[in-house]
C-alpha cells in the first residue's frame, strides 16, 4: 500500500489512503518478527538423517548441498555456490571486525548471500567437519559443489525438484529446506547458552541471551541480534533472580 500512499501525496491528497488496519484486521497486516512455533525439522518430528539419505540416493550433488545446509545453516543458493576448498578460514586469519572467538576455524560465506554480505560461520563439531570433507571431495579443484554442466539457475531448480520429490514440503512434512536454518540457529544457541531457545521453553539471564542472539544472528548472516527472534522465539523477560545476581 505504500506506493498508493505515495501516489496520493503526488496528487495532493496525502490522507486519501489510510493505514492497512483500516482495510483489514490488524492480525492480518501486522508483521510477525518473532517465531511463535518451532519451525525446525526436529521440532516437527522430521528425521534430518533419513531425509539426507533419501536425497543423496536421488542425487549425490544435491545430497552434499543439503548436508552443508544442515551443518552450517546455509541458504539454498549459498550451498550450491559453495567452493569448499576456498571457504575454510583459521580463526587467526579472521578480520579484526570479527572480534574474539573461542572457535578455531570458520567457513567463509559470501557467494550467494543476500546482498553479498560476508559472514563467518564457526566449524565447531564433527558433523560440520564431515560435511565439509564431503564437499571438498565432490568439488573440482577450487570449484563449487553445484552439478557440473548446470547453470546456477538450473542447479537451484534441481535442488528444489529433488527435495520436493522426496517429500520435503510444508504440505507433506510441515517443513521446507529453509527450515534447516531454524535447526542450525537452535543448535547454535544451545551450544552458546547451554539451554534450549525460548521457542522450546528455555529461559536464561538477559545478558547471556542477548550475547547468544547476537552470535546466532552473525553466523546466519544477519546484522541485528533481534532477527534471531524469528528463529528462536521471543526473548522473554528475565527471571527476578537473574536481575538480583547481576553485578551491574
TrEMBL record:
Region (Disordered): 225-248
Domain Integrase catalytic: 49-187
Keyword Lipoprotein: no
Entry superkingdom: Bacteria
Keywords for this protein: DNA recombination
Single GO molecular function: DNA binding
InterPro entries: DNA_brk_join_enz, Integrase-like_cat_sf, Integrase_catalytic_putative
GO biological process, any: DNA integration
Protein name, UniProt field: Integrase catalytic domain-containing protein
Native organism taxonomy: Bacteria, Pseudomonadati, Pseudomonadota, Betaproteobacteria, Burkholderiales
Amino acid at each position: 500500500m505504500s506506493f498508493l500512499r505515495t501516489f496520493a501525496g503526488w496528487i495532493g491528497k496525502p490522507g486519501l489512503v489510510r493505514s492497512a488496519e483500516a482495510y483489514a484486521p490488524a492480525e492480518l497486516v501486522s508483521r510477525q518478527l518473532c517465531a511463535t512455533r518451532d519451525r525446525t525439522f526436529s521440532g516437527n518430528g522430521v528425521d534430518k538423517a533419513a531425509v539426507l539419505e533419501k536425497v543423496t540416493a536421488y542425487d549425490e550433488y544435491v545430497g552434499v548441498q543439503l548436508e552443508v545446509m544442515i551443518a552450517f545453516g546455509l541458504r539454498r543458493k549459498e550451498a550450491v555456490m559453495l567452493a569448499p576448498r576456498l571457504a575454510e578460514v583459521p580463526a587467526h586469519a579472521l578480520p579484526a571486525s570479527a572480534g574474539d572467538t573461542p572457535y578455531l576455524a570458520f567457513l567463509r560465506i559470501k557467494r550467494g548471500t543476500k546482498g553479498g554480505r560476508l559472514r563467518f560461520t564457526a566449524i565447531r563439531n564433527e558433523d560440520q567437519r564431515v560435511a565439509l570433507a564431503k564437499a571438498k571431495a565432490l568439488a573440482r579443484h577450487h570449484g563449487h559443489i553445484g552439478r557440473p554442466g548446470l547453470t546456477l539457475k538450473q542447479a537451484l531448480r534441481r535442488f528444489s525438484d529433488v527435495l520436493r520429490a522426496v517429500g520435503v514440503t510444508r504440505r507433506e512434512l510441515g517443513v521446507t529446506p529453509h527450515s534447516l536454518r531454524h535447526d542450525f540457529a537452535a543448535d547454535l544457541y544451545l551450544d552458546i547458552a547451554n539451554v534450549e531457545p525460548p521457542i522450546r521453553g528455555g529461559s536464561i539471564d538477559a545478558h547471556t541471551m542477548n550475547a547468544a542472539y547476537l552470535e546466532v544472528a552473525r553466523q546466519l548472516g544477519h546484522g541485528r541480534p533481534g532477527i534471531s527472534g524469528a528463529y528462536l522465539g521471543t526473548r522473554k523477560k528475565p527471571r527476578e533472580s537473574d536481575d538480583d545476581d547481576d553485578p551491574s
